[in-house]
Amino acid sequence: MSMLTPPGMGGKYRITGDKYPRMRRPRRRSKLVLATVASVAALGLAGWGTLQLIDVFTGGDKQASAADRKADCPSAKASAPAPAKILPKPAKITVNVYNATPRGGLAKAAADELKKRGFTIGKVGNATAAYDKKVPGTGLLLGAPTAANGTFPVLGTQLPGAATKTDARKSGDVDLIIGTKFKAFSTPQAAATALTALTKPAPAPSSC
Q1: Cα–Cα distance measured from residue 31 to residue 16, given in angstroms and rounded to the nearest whole number
Q2: What is the helix (H) or strand (E) element at residue 119, kind and residue range?
Q3: Could you tell me which residue, 203 or 148, shows the higher pLDDT?
Q4: Which phi and psi angles does 103 have, rounded to 5°?
Q5: Are 137 and 161 in contact (CB under 8 A)?
Q6: Which helix (H) or strand (E) holds 163?
Q7: What is the rounded average pLDDT of the residues 140-167?
Q8: Residues in Cβ contact with 141 at an 8 Å cutoff, skipping those fewer than 6 apart
Q9: Distance of alpha carbon 191 from alpha carbon 196, whole angstroms
């Protein structure tokens, strides 16, 4: 036994010659692998928990229910559309034509044109002092409150941009007071297109 060999040690720890035994620590690779797996699992759980909290505070269920409602939209669109709006025919509308401009003969010319387009003509003449030279636009439609949803829109297709006003009359006739910016009525084709658009059925309300 060499003098360098500690007492009580022999076998593979016996020191012979000039070489010393290498004392290696046991490997800890398995512990490192286990620690890595545990860390990954912990991070995964933390991320999942964060997503759950986000859903709770941002209303994830509400978003999901909204998406479900959108998916059901085709059935809502398949519902029947609202009925077409019923408007009076031009022949059922009596129009009084008054000229509020300095141009002479304008009321008669306008009345003749409206008659050609199917309207019934009532009184024709100059506007009263309350409106004479006081209608700055193309014209003013004046009638009973009931005219707002029927007569005004139909007559308005002939003169786009005309203002409307209601008064206390009980009759169904309407006054067309020609304004200073009046040049001509709409073309018959444009007026017919506008009237068709007014009578189209309104789209059914969507429940989406």
Answers
A1: 36
A2: none
A3: 148
A4: -75, 125
A5: yes
A6: strand 163-166
A7: 96
A8: 147, 151, 152, 155, 156, 162, 163, 164, 165, 174, 175, 176, 177
A9: 9
Show the beta-strand stretches assigned E in 13-138: 94-99, 120-126
Rounded mean pLDDT, 43-72: 53
Q: CA-CA distance, 177 to 130, in Å (whole number)? A: 11
Q: Which residues face 96 on adjacent strands?
A: 175
Exposure of 31 in the CB half-sphere (CA atoms within 13 A): 3
Q: List phi, psi (to 5°) of 148.
A: -60, -35
Spatial contact of 93 and 174, defined as CB atoms under 8 Å apart: yes
Buried b (16+ CB within 10 A) or exposed e, 150-179: bbbbbbbbbbeebebeeeeeeeebbbbbbb
User: CA 11 to CA 22: how far, in whole Å?
Assistant: 14
What pLDDT is stored for residue 76 in this prediction?
Answer: 46
The pair phi, psi for residue 9, each rounded to 5°, is -110, 135
- Quick one: tokens of 53? 């909290």
Tokens of 159: 């003169």
* Average pLDDT score, the chain: 78
Amino acid at 3: M
Average pLDDT over residues 189-203: 86
Say how far apart CA 8 and CA 21 lie, in whole Å: 15
**To which residue do tokens 């008054």 refer?**
98
Contact 203, 81 (CB under 8 A): yes
The whole-model pTM stands at: 0.60
